[in-house]
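Q: Here's a chain of 222 amino acids. Please give me its 3D structure as tokens.
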Amino acid sequence: MTQYEAPAAADTEGRVVGLLLAAGGGRRLGGRPKALLEHRGRPLVEHAVGVLRAGGCTRVHVVLGAAADAVRERARLEGCAVVENPEWEQGMGASLRVGLGSLAGSGARAALVSLVDQPGIGPRAVARVLAAFEDERSLAAAAYEGLRGHPVLFGSAHWAGVAASASGDRGARAYLKEHAATVTLVECGDVAEPYDIDTPEDLARLTGPTGPTGPAPGPEES
């Protein structure tokens, strides 16, 4: 798994669990599951787990879907709670519901949700959003030049509402819009880039085992 130097973030002692949504089938990538895209010589899902841990999440839950068996076989996910979304084709909303459901009984007070296909978001952005946690009512999100993005932190008081409204590929967008007045926006545009790996052209942003295949990664990814 990719190793990072952890930023100076407050230790949450497991109160906030990193929740990685990695179930996508890569429809616009010709059916290449995003979790298995190669980044730095290993599956992208490993990179994303490493980012969450380096950012301060001592516990990580991973939601798989497309090619779940292959991901389990190829990716090193030791120490993660791995759950599967059998309805992954319905979109991110279904994976978010499965992921939040996996936290029941875990003792977690909040979930920090990240997406597997955003390798430009590194540990420093995770740490900043994690620092916004106060209690079960916390609701925070990374912002990029003032626009809300990922990762997003949901205190457990919001989980039921998020799960009830999550649908399609919109995820928690409706819930966040409804509660916009109470969302703490944490500016991360100076330490991360919120691009997605969605199309074949986007693959140039990934890094191969011998060096970058596209633009050099930002400092948080070095």
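Q: Can you summarize the key feature?
A: The longest strand covers residues 147-155.
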